[in-house]
Amino acid sequence: MNSPSRSRQDKHSSGYKKADIVWTVTGLLQDERLGTDNCSLSLCCADGVRTDNDMWKVKPPVVFPMETRYRTILESLVPPDPMAQFHLRRGSPEDEFPDLCRNSTWMGRILTLAMYRRQFHRCTHSGVIFDDVIRPGLEEPGVWSGPVSVGCVAGDAQSYVLFCDFFDRVIEAYHQHKVTSQTPESDFNYDNLKGGDDLDTSYAVHCQASVVRGVEDFCFPTHCSRGERRQLLTLARKALQRLEDEDEDEELPGRLLSLEELDQDQQRDLNLSSPSSSQLRLGVARDWPDARAVWVSKDGGLVVLVNMDDHLRLVATRDDGNIAEVFKRVCINLQKLGAHYGQLKHPFIWKQQLGWVTSSPADVGTGLRVSVHLKLRHLPRHKRLQDVLKRLRLRMDTTESSVLYVVSNAATFGPSEVELTQLVVDGVKLLVAMEKRLEVDGDIDELVPTQK
User: Fold this and answer.
1) Model pTM score
2) What is its EC number (predicted)?
3) Which CATH class is domain 83-175?
4) What pLDDT, in 10s, does the model give residues 220-234?
5) Distances from the Cα of 77 to the Cαs of 25, 34, 64, 71, in angstroms?
6) Fold (CATH) for 190-447
């Protein structure tokens, strides 16, 4: 046990005196995700010596010491509230809360008055407010019998941070995967894919792999300006030119064409259509077709869409069922493009807890959609089809043909790129096996898988 005299000696030898201690502000950090301010203070000696024990992060007390003296300094360090720049003629959150009684979107099912009240006075640095986020679900409330859409959109990347308690719930509901503090896996090693090049071509007649990406430092299409959109086109032109220059086998040389340069036949061949009424209402198609462009490879198997529904979309297609090949082509060129955008100081947008993020919460995580066109005559009418698709984590969409259906992954968040593609490969094989069984009046109950 230390003696009292020894304690007093240590206290004086340390050089600390009440009169020598001053408070200095070392930083004012704003926790962007939680919306709270923390003040970091350090206790320093008069001679400038500071030890590890001299630093704390504390919440400011109710009555801040020397408040009058340092008030102007602290206020100058606080970032300005974007909402202070707006003078919106709005009522209270209770007055502005939308009617969601007949809204079948995930936004309508999740949003409560308490949640709306928390988001009401928030605004991103580019001016996105919460009413901008939920507008898609209010414009198109959906139907209870059809597929459930997310019913919301992000105006910029900061929206996912500022309105995280809303977006996280929507993402979890849509993708059926929990948002955690762990960083999502990303796997572009196409060699890890098992199969995919052995589908029955009498059933699988077409396949496609599509990846969407957002570009850092730019608002998403619903909120970006004409100048931003034109800058994005300039960036795409530079990145695609570099992609062509490094192609040693000369497989990629193509042309970046604006929509004005494409005639109707060319647009139809590329599956490019005029903006829908929904896109026009939401602002995605503002100033159409200004700064919209498409890049097509020499063989037509790789297409890059610029400023269409998002900043950038890569699409690889084949007129057979070789999923492995389209997935490989997307992986290779996406990584190259990502490197070029990084060299141009505008990398693709990545969030630690969500992965790759774009304007729609339906595409976060990987942004990958792998689809196969299947000829099916019996399975679409089977009573257990929806249960089978849910277990396989797939979705099936109709086409203009009564026997042709598009089968794709239902979610993009959770599994890695390889795992999602593997789900589609295995699922398509099982659906084809079921179709063959039904063609001979067989039973498919024993083929129904367990929940994925």
Assistant:
1) 0.79
2) 2.7.3.2
3) mainly alpha
4) 999 999 999 999 999
5) 10, 18, 16, 10
6) Creatine Kinase; Chain A, domain 2 (3.30.590)
